[in-house]
Amino acid sequence: MKLKTQVRETKTNDSSTLLNLRTIIIIVSAITTLSVVHNTILMQFSLLLFSILLLLIIQPSKHRFHRLMHRMKMILKIVVTLMIFQILFRHGGEVIWQYGILKITTIGVSYGVSSSLRLMLIVLIAGLLLDIPYYDYILAFRSWKIPYEISFLIASVIHFIPIFHKQFISSREALNLRGIEISKPSILKRFKIYAALVFPIIARAISDVKYRSISLELRAFRLYPDRTFIYQAKLKWYDLVVQICSFIIFIIVIIYF
């Protein structure tokens, strides 16, 4: 009786996040589409704020907030550099400031700021999707009747990226323990250090893929058309409400803005 009760409870287990992953994918699809369609500073800034709120609401925790701040600090230099180059070298519209060949125009400022905000938005959305467990993607794609082979392929790629990042961090920490600091050398030497780190990690990842394919063959992958799952990611009432509201807001913004 205990075993049956436990199986019944695990079968109704929900997603690891506050919202169902299908709801999150719909919201993310709407955000990224609006970011591409409307290339204005106000729209990009609004979508960025909404993405930050979504990131904190889905899994509210202190650890989540610290990870968000860490990611923002990591990409801040890249975003600022991109914005400066776009502002200085993209011309068009009225001239705001000019010194020799350097020229700042209204279109350059608008494009530079909006493209930088879009880059930050993409990084935040990617971080949100990569933090979700691998099994949630399998359940979400199964609920949408996507073939299991395609679901497994997409979920494996998403699952591989955090593993690659952890291996890179471990290799970098190993260099620091040997007294080699990456931040101090020149740009050329830093590029050589990163190349020395990346290529062994890629080779290790290719080797892991080979063993994973052998493991799948031993488990008779794709032998049966139907598969059974322990967990079920069911939509709750607020998931349906959020999906409907997201669709309505998306249509309104596309038509009237």
Explain this structure:
The protein has helices spanning 2-11, 21-37, 41-58, 62-89, 106-130, 134-143, 148-177, 187-218, 237-256, and strands at residues 95-99, 102-105. The protein has 257 residues and is mostly helical. It has 2 domains: 1-134 and 230-257, no CATH class; 147-226, no CATH class. The chain has a two-stranded antiparallel sheet with strand order 1-2. Helix 2 packs antiparallel against helix 3, helix 2 (21-37) packs parallel to helix 9 and helix 3 (41-58) runs parallel beside helix 5. The radius of gyration is 23 Å and the shape is flat. It starts with a helix and ends with a helix. Residues 1-14 have low confidence and may be disordered.
Structural class: mainly alpha
Largest sheet: 2 strands, antiparallel
Helix content: over 70%
> Can you count the beta strands?
2
Low-confidence stretches: 1-14
Please count the helical segments.
9
State which percent range the strand residues make up: under 5%
Shape: flat
**How many domains?**
2
Strand order of the largest sheet: 1-2
Oligomer: single chain
Q: What's the SSE pattern?
A: HHHHEEHHHHH
Termini, distance in Å? 59 Å
Q: How much is the radius of gyration in Å?
A: 23 Å
Roughly what is the average pLDDT, rounded to an integer?
78
Features:
single chain; 257 residues; mainly alpha; 2 domains; two-stranded antiparallel ribbon; 74% helix; disordered N terminus
Provide the fold topology.
Blueprint: H1 2-11, H2 21-37, H3 41-58, H4 62-89, E1 95-99, E2 102-105, H5 106-130, H6 134-143, H7 148-177, H8 187-218, H9 237-256
Antiparallel strand pairs: 1-2
Helix pairs in contact: 2-3, 2-5, 2-9, 3-5, 4-5, 6-7, 7-8
